[in-house]
Amino acid sequence: IARSSVRRTTKNSTMNGSLVAFLLATIACIPIATSVPASSKVQVQYSWKTFIFEDLPHSPYAKVDGYDYYISKNILPTGISYHDTTNCFFFPILRWHRGIPATITYINPALYKDGSSPPLRAFPTYVDNYLPGWFGVNDLGAYDYNIYATDVNTKRNAKSVEKIEEEVPSETNIQEEIPSAAEDKKKHNEEEDDDEVRKKHSSHHKPIHSHHGGQYVVQVPVPVPAPPPKITTTTTTAPAPTYKPSYKPSYKPPYKPPPPKNPTRDVYHFISVYFTSANEKCSRLFFLDHGTVVYDNVEIFIRRPLIWAFDIYECSDEGFGYPPALRVSIPDSVVERPAGISYFGIDMYGNCAEFYVYITNCFDNRIIVYDNAKRSFWYFEHDTFKPGAERSLYPGPLPPEDSYDFGVLGLIIAGENSNSYRDVFYSPGSSYGLFKTSTQVLRNKALAPGSPTSPDFSFVGYGGQDGEAITNYDSESQVLFFVHLVTATLQCWNTNLPLVKGNVATLFSDLEFGTDISIDNQRNLRFINYFGHGVPYWEADIPSNAYYRFYKAPIDDLIKGTVCDPRNV
């Protein structure tokens, strides 16, 4: 599942430094109920006046960069992922305010009753969420090596993606030569100095330093796992989804022995995470660390964005003890403005090492593709990725212009199409119109970057003048859900119908500011609501009396009897 959303800042404003925050945060700020939900089908699962962190390793009042380590009013989860196998909620918290002890957190719902206010815990530990300048963390370098997802059938050596110019052939029985760690590090440093990268991406084009004055340098090299001599790649095609309201998944991931009690490893130092995706097939949590924090509307670029994945087999600190299954930095060759990187979707087509990642960049107006099997990056550019791309196709009076000038932002991987590939829906920040391509196109590096008018990227339609939306997709009913900022509504559209206003149903209204939408394997829709008394979360001064609710609603009950109900299609 991939989500989409919108942010609150102009492309050329003084908040350009906070584009990641703005982009990835306002997106999180979509209207949701200011009072009792309009529908009795929507239930409050949890509520908070403030978010509390459990077992903080330091006093909340300990000073980091001159500010409190924990500032309660600055804590708002900006995304939701639910891992059904371990019954675990993951909440990323974008660091666009100070006083956030962890940028990835989790809750074990088995320990807390509905209606309670569960505390947050850091994933996988608090130390892994320390920033430079915090508690003795004086320097932080970019990772010189990448680790790729592997399983019993497919294993490849961990070379840096930035150094790979040709794709690895897909045939079996390939043996690769692994350079020593010292040789690989020397070659990396000769090709690209990390300080130069920071200069290029800094909003002020100046060398970036930690807040305490120490320059970031490489700290500890990451060990490279040795691969077996042969690689076997298999490809499978999943059956087309069928609508089964009573469906309960029974899949369990293959058993793996628990990790050692006290594994020796590097500290990860996650910088800022907005979006997470829990994968049931491989029992794995994916997320993208933007490598940037935003304080006082100033963007501080610390290191390149990183794609991460961790195996998870228990909703506890011990269950998160496995080393990363995937850690790969996004190279400069596919990104001009890292602050525009927003959402991603995982397109898994075979075993747990065979997948693509599709990433939107609303400032570069690109969709970036990462092929894990071949460890290769490329990108697509198209006229439909540009800000307001749908306006020239609008059939009636034009909707309001997008004052934030965001290009392609939201991205959803939906169900299979006629070619047994999957549809990929996307939209610009305005979200008035919806566009579509296919995984068949995005997977093909030979087509990249493509023609700006290629028919491989097409217009789907409009649902009315309801813009700036968070979006999610339910594969069972084949329904797309939207939470709109402009009209403060939760709406749905059955993807088997034309996208026109009459085929869009309003399910929930009277909203204030809501965050990400999540759909679990039991097909419950969840979202967090931030009640800021009229002050959006992206504002610098969040009210001290703001509060939060975590809602849950069964999808079949929500859409029953509406135009979205598959029984009515």
UniProtKB/TrEMBL annotation:
Residues 199-212 have a biased composition (Basic residues). One of its GO terms (cellular component) is extracellular region. Pfam families: MRJP. Residues 231-250 have a biased composition (Low complexity). The keyword Transferase does not apply. InterPro entries: 6-blade_b-propeller_TolB-like, MRJP/yellow-related. Residues 163-214, 227-259 are annotated as: Disordered. The lineage of its organism: Eukaryota, Metazoa, Ecdysozoa, Arthropoda, Hexapoda. This is Putative major royal jelly protein. Belongs to the major royal jelly protein family. Keywords: Secreted, Signal. The keyword Secreted applies. It comes from the Eukaryota. It is found in: Secreted.
